[in-house]
Amino acid sequence: MAAxxxxxxxxxxxxxxxxxxxxxxxSAIDLVTEADLASEELILDMLQHSLxxxxxMSEESFAAYDxxxxxxxWIIDPLDGTTNFAHNFPWFAVSIALYAEGRSQVGIIYNPMxxxxxxxxxxxxxxxxxxxxxxxxxxxxxxxxxATGFPYDVREKSDAIxxxxxxxLTHVQGVRRPGAAALDxxxxxxxxxxxxxxxxxKPWDTAAGYLLVxxxxxxLSNFAGAPFSPFSxxxxxxxxxxxNDLTALLTEFSSAxx
Length: 258
Ligand code: IPD
Ligand code: CA
Ligand code: CA
Description:
Blueprint: H1 2-17, E1 23-25, E2 31-33, H2 34-50, E3 55-58, E4 73-80, H3 82-86, E5 93-100, E6 103-111, E7 116-121, E8 125-128, E9 131-132, E10 145-148, H4 158-169, E11 174-176, H5 181-189, E12 195-199, H6 203-215, E13 219-221, E14 234-238, H7 243-250
Bound molecules: D-MYO-inositol-1-phosphate and calcium ion (2 copies).
The site of one calcium ion (CA) has 5 residues, from strand 4 and helix 6.
């Protein structure tokens, strides 16, 4: 049902992408469009009927969380990549995860412009359009293509973010900033990227993608190498082979650093 909801919401986003947008500012550079809201409404409608009793955490309407959910919860980003969408830059996704027992059990990410559906189920593997996927076998930073992203409060944290970017940029083959964290993780899971890092991500950005990466053989942690949770502020994800080299570079930028 989550995959069906992601496909339907993605189809709606693709249709709305062609239309003029209604854009509202949540903060100076954090936008919401009519498409975020329409996609969310469609997904909630479908999921609330499928498994009654499962709670909802969804970016635009049910985003509050003081604690990590202890009951089964759908964690939803109805449009990941809103800034891209608002600028008619065709790179965005729908992300849906089923979170229970302290971790994601199912993760679905749909890229409607490429018609690519990424799915993962805990202990069963990860797939792109029904084909099993694995992370890359790139073993040196020199040969690695990595991605990053910038949080909406980047202006307040720009020194640390740019310092971390400079450090990674000067050790790898290339750095990309595509603009949709869920797709950054999906691309890592299917070996199109070798690593990804970002600070300040929210559970709806990562809840589906982190399961994809784990099920495809990747590793996730904070910048210092401690275990990752979608409820923690730092994410370093890699194809596993690069993880030690990347934590060595990023550990000094960890908020957990001494
Ligand atoms: C954003 C995107 C972006 C990332 C931001 C996220 P949104 O999500 O994933 O790539 O850098 O940190 O907030 O607002 O487009 O759903
Ligand atoms: Ca997002
Ligand atoms: Ca969003």
